[in-house]
Amino acid sequence: MNIDLCAIIDLPKISDPRGNLTFIESNRHIPFEIRRVYYLYDVPGGAERGGHAHKTLHQFLIAMSGSFDVVLDDGRNKKRVHLNRSYYGLYICPMIWRELDNFSSGSVCMVLSSNFYNESDYYRSYEEYLAALEMSP
Ligand code: T46
Q: Which residue of 16, 60, 67, 114 could cross-link 32, Cys pair, CB 3.0 to 4.6 Å?
C-alpha cells in the first residue's frame, strides 16, 4: 500500500440558511461498508494519538469540530494532512502507519471504520509494521 491511495474525499453538503447538512453512505461516498463509528474528543493540548497501522481496516476521519493533523506513512514516504472541516474527510487504506497531532482546543475527530474493534488487526510497533511491509509482495 502507498500513501497516494489515501485521499481527501469531499462529502455532499446541503447548504441551508437553517444550517448545513452533510451525509455519508457506505460504499457510495466512502469506499467501504461502515461497521463502527468512534470519536476522539476532549483531547488535551499537545496530545498525540494513533501511532499504529491496521492490517485490514479501512477508515475515514472527519474533523467534526476544530482541527487536527494526520501524518500518513507507508514505510517509504510521509505526508501530513490537516483536517478542519466537517464536509470532507481523509480515507486511510490498510497498512498505513498514522499519527494524529496538532489538535485544536475543542476538536472532535470522528472515525468511520470498515470493521469492529479488533486488537489483532493493529501493528502498534513501527518495527513490526516495517517487517510486515517487507514480507508482503
Ligand atoms: C485510529 C485512530 C485514529 C476500543 O475498545 N474500541 C475501539 O473501537 C477503539 C478505537 C479503541 N478501543 C480501545 C483500545 C484502547 O484500549 O480504546 C483504547 C484507546 O485506543 P487507541 O490507543 O488505539 O486510540 P488511538 O486514538 O491512538 O487510535 C484510534 C484507533 O484505535 C485507530 O484505529 O486509526 O484512533
A: 114
Global pTM reads: 0.97
Specify the CATH number of the domain 3-13+28-135: 2.60.120.10
Q: Which of 38, 69, 115, 129 is the best mutation target for the ligand 1 pocket, counting ligand atoms within 8 Å of the beta carbon and taking the most?
A: 38
In this structure, the residues whose C-beta lies within 6 A of any atom of ligand 1 are 36, 38, 40, 49-50, 59, 98, 100, 111, 117
Asked if 52 is an active-site residue, the reply is: yes
Structure confidence by residue, pLDDT tens digits, 50-74: 999 999 999 999 999 999 999 999 9
Domain parsing of the chain, residue ranges = 3-13+28-135
